[in-house]
Amino acid sequence: MLPFKLIYSPDYYLPIGQHVFPAEKYRRIHQRLLEAKIADESDFLTPQPASDQDILLVHKPDYVQKLKTGTLSAREELEMEVPYSPELVRAFWLAAGGSILAAQHALKDKVGFNIGGGFHHAFPDHGEGFCMINDVAVAIRRMQRDNRIRTAMTVDCDVHHGNGTAAIFAGTRTASEPLPSAAASTLGRPALGKMRGAHAGDVFTISLHQHNNYPAWKPPSSIDVDLPDGIGDDDYLAWLDNALSSGLRQFEPDLICYIAGADPYREDQLGGLELTLEGLKRRDELVFRVARARNIPVMVTYAGGYARNVEDTVTIHSNTVVAAKELYAA
Ligand SMILES: [Zn+2]
């Protein structure tokens, strides 16, 4: 038995038909975790959908109303890049409920996984990039409303910038202060990547992403690490280490929300970085190690992953559970 819970439902499946987003990945991860004996059935908990009240902690009433009544404009539906259906709305409400439950268990067990979620491109008033509801933001606001946490930090390692999350929590930013360039001192290669930063209010957002990729407009996170194309394991890990140290020097979160996208992988169809399977597991280990050393609970969500071979995406996401198991069971 794992020393933490995995939140999962077969209804996480997104009814979007033939799509670059492998909607069946959640089912396959569940299966892999069991078959490889990484987890057993008793490690899983089934979530309830988030309530409308929870969703409204983040999203605008007009937008929620349009989703519930199927009245998005053609343009709004196009921007979401997934075909609207009432079933899809239910899947996103369920994913948000899963992130809430994962956060609650993270606060109890130090780690909690949502075997789904991480829809970081959803804004308060619209969805985009396959994301309808920002489940991570909903979970943070719900934990704050319940007085379970005061502050949170998002650590977004999906290859795409966490634009929705940055926009949602930008309103809580209190001051702007440039960070010293991490590149020159630590990596000795100032031309590689760029770190931008500003202090945050009650939620500190970190995004590590490929600069030359969707979204074109990247609203500022508390720390943005703009990575150049083709960066590999060692450089990536150095940047992540740097961003985490810098963030945790500036800010004390009661909860870390780790958005463990599988798409920095070298074989990803929508990403242009060169991380290996091993490098991605080391990435997970780094996040967990830093959090554990400071006794900060971590809630994990999965976000994107578009490997040419979907089994690689499943391996990357399963390895995140393995990384936590190895560290927290020790
Ligand atoms: Zn992505």
Secondary structure: elements and pairs:
Elements: E1 5-7, H1 25-35, E2 44-45, H2 52-55, H3 61-69, H4 74-80, H5 86-109, E3 111-114, H6 135-145, E4 152-156, H7 163-170, H8 182-187, E5 194-197, E6 203-210, E7 223-227, H9 233-250, E8 256-259, H10 277-293, E9 298-301, H11 310-328
Parallel strand pairs: 1-2, 1-3, 3-9, 4-6, 4-8, 6-7, 8-9
Antiparallel strand pairs: 5-7
Helix pairs in contact: 1-11, 5-6, 9-10, 10-11
The structure holds zinc ion.
Explain what you see.
The chain has 330 residues and is α/β, with parallel strands linked by helices. 41% of the residues lie in helices and 12% in strands. It has 11 helices and 9 strands. The chain has a 9-stranded mixed beta sheet with strand order 2-1-3-9-8-4-6-7-5, sandwiched between helices. The radius of gyration is 18 Å and the shape is globular. It binds zinc ion (ZN).
